[in-house]
Input
Amino acid sequence: MNLSRRSILSAALAAIAAGLLSACASDKPPETKRTTGEFTNDAALTAKVKSAIATDVGARTAAAINIETYRGTVQLTGFVGSREQAERAETAAKKVEGVRSVKNDVRIKSDS
Output
């Protein structure tokens, strides 16, 4: 194969690869994507909130609560034994530096 054929073949393969990669790109608008720094900050904030809940409310309650963080907004989900535990978890999360807001979707377990 001569040099020009190799160049054409290489260019064609590069174009195909670029096309495939762009087809895999997300259709989400840019404002919903997080930068690597935002993702890292959110992960660190999640860990701090989990630790704060464990310290303020107890390890058992912290283990029962799932924490998701997106751009500083913390969402708490899961099931706890009392309304007081859910409220204390929310209060603990709000105290963590960097938390912009807390959405408390924690549910109370029923005894049925």
